[in-house]
Amino acid sequence: MSKKLLCLAFVIALISGMAQAALVHQYTFEDGTADDSVGAADGNLVGDAAVVDRALVLDGVDDWMDMDGSIIDVNTYSEVSIEVWYTPAAGQNTGFTMLAYLGGFGTYESWGGSDYFFITSAREDDVSRAAISNGTSAGPWGLETGVDGTEYDDDNMHLMVGTIDSSGISLYIDGSLVSGPVALAAHNSINGISQGFVGLGKGGYTNDPEWAGTIHEFNIYDHALSLNEVQIHWATGPSSGGLSKAHDPDPQSGANNVGTANGNYISLTLSWKTGLDPLDSNYYDPNINNHLLYLDTNSAKLHYGGGAWSGGLGGAGGEIN
What we know:
Blueprint: H1 3-20, E1 23-27, E2 44-46, E3 50-51, E4 56-59, E5 64-67, H2 69-72, E6 80-88, E7 100-103, E8 116-120, E9 128-133, E10 145-149, E11 158-165, E12 168-173, E13 176-182, E14 197-200, E15 212-221, H3 227-236, E16 265-269, E17 292-296, E18 301-304, E19 318-320
Antiparallel strand pairs: 1-15, 2-5, 3-4, 4-15, 5-14, 6-11, 6-15, 7-8, 7-14, 8-9, 9-10, 11-12, 12-13, 16-17, 17-18, 18-19
Helix pairs in contact: 1-3
């Protein structure tokens, strides 16, 4: 392998390892099951929920996937992120649906959730939302610390991430921070989240409708993903279902151009190909046009140009030690 390819493989491996370091539970549905491919909290399909073509399909009527909250043990985390790749069924999520929920189930007056953390893509008040609530004294919904974003109920694939850390709660959609961090109210904390129920497509409010659509991947992290990490995930696409966000590459697939040397720097233009393994492929983000790495032949250090790296390492550029 050439020095250039070794450098690129190293950078991609470094970024991939950084992004996956705190992944504690993962559901990709690639083997036709709802098994947890990282931890031991295998999913249970309820009603008509089914794994079809490497994805969880939910019709929004009495079906969902649940997991063992005592194994996931979210209330022992100091930080948490829940991440979902999903395609909503267009126009069908008009009630207070929930995409992913961790908390109590029917614990408030026998029908309401409590002590929870959730993300949702579409609901009756026409927003997407991430929220945490501990306690029931005023109704759990009145005790939420939450962040809202644009509602998506459009039959297109999206990435939603909700995070909680010491700075508060944040919501990311399609690689962008849309709200947060918002500081948690004094009564809300991760250690107060119930282990009673963990669900995809259903929340802890038993009278609310189930979510309708397709879930391609669900991940739980025991740390708060950063904006850079979320951007990397959005740029590379889900690992499940044979899906990739690589498309319309420039330079074209197979191109491997070396720019003109400028002093001690050699401009290396990345080549792109479709694929799912970030150790084997360089993924293309069509929203970023400049994809350059610079090899300093004196120091043998790799630099990235301003806005160059599709995983979000751009900006003013910098040096990779």
